[in-house]
Amino acid sequence: MFHFLGLLKAMSVPFIYMIVFGFISGFLPNMDLDLMIVLLFFPTYILIGILAPIYNKKTPYFASFIGSLSLSVLNIFFGHFFIELETLADPDRVNRSLVLSTSVSIITTSIFLFTKKRKVLKNV
Amino acid sequence: MFKDVLDIYNKHLPSILVLSITLVFPVTFFIQLVVVYVYESSTVLFPSIISLCLLIINFIVLFSPFSFLTHKDLSDETVSLKELYAVFFSYFFYLLLFSVIVYAISVFGSFLILMPTIIGFSIIFLLPVFVDETSMKNHFRKAWLTLKSENIAVLGDIVIISSVQILLWTILTYIIKDLENSFFFFLVLRALVNTFLYPLFYIYLARKYGQLHEDRKWVTF
Questions:
Q1: Mean of the per-residue pLDDT values of chain A
Q2: Of A69, B12, B15, B175, which is the most exposed, with the fewest CB atoms less than 10 Å away?
Q3: Longest pairwise C-alpha distance within chain A
Q4: How many Å lie between the alpha carbon of A8 and the closest alpha carbon of chain B?
Q5: Of the candidates B130, B129, B123, which has an alpha carbon nearest to the alpha carbon of residue B109?
Q6: CA-to-CA distance for A85 and A87, rounded, in angstroms?
Q7: What is the DSSP string of A11-68?
Q8: pLDDT of B21-44, one tens digit each?
Q9: The pTM is what?
Q10: What is the DSSP letter of B24?
């Protein structure tokens, strides 16, 4: 069964990472924009791909999918309403960002679960 | 009551100091910076409402490790710093999300003669006391039951906590008024006040309202 409370607990560490890194990267003077986006994007969704199956043991893939989807939707809405970036202007770009984030977290979840299964088999 | 609070504060002084320097200080500093940004920016519509929400988030988000420490102290168990950090990092997003949602309800319901506002604010202050429940239904039910049994006392606590903070902050700004100060100095001063004051409030609230229900199951990593 899917636990909503476990999903919220899994989302807290990626959310803190997102805020802290976004705050620190504003102070770095001559940082490359692509490098900054990669450093912001991949650890967040890899972290939620690892943490979601820890709290939701029965439905790991669905939990990581919903977690990464809600994090990216929160990002898009924050950019649209608070900073007034035009994040909702191009539907193709929105689709691409949602697909990228969910696929990264689901692939991480599958790798995490496979390695966990292998470890259990080796110990037996 | 205050003697018990000071006892717990003295007994766990090193871990409380480490927690407040590593967690309370940076979070308060960051949120004060965001408040300044919200007032300066031209795109945000109602800066005062959003900054009050940010100050409430600052109070609510840091609650969980201190209430964990208080419950462990009341049942005579030892606490390690690692457990406290795990509690903070696992209950962060839950507290933030629900304080934002209840705050939005209480702000949009303010035209109903402020009744949803009062109920919403007292529920926001009671939410982190019962954060360790296993399901969300039980969590809100226990907060609602406590609100029904101690309705005026919760409002009195809110008034006491906010007025003590405002009083200390005013006194400190009057002391340093004539000196030449930069903008960051005020933020650091505000963060230092919160660093030494918030653990007392958290232990007081967890000691007062948390005793009504006994069985507790904290779920961390």
A1: 88
A2: B175
A3: 55
A4: 6
A5: B123
A6: 6
A7: HHHHHHHHHHHHHHHTT-TT--HHHHHHHHHHHHHHHHHHHHHHH-SS-HHHHHHHHH
A8: 999 999 999 999 889 988 988 888
A9: 0.86
A10: I
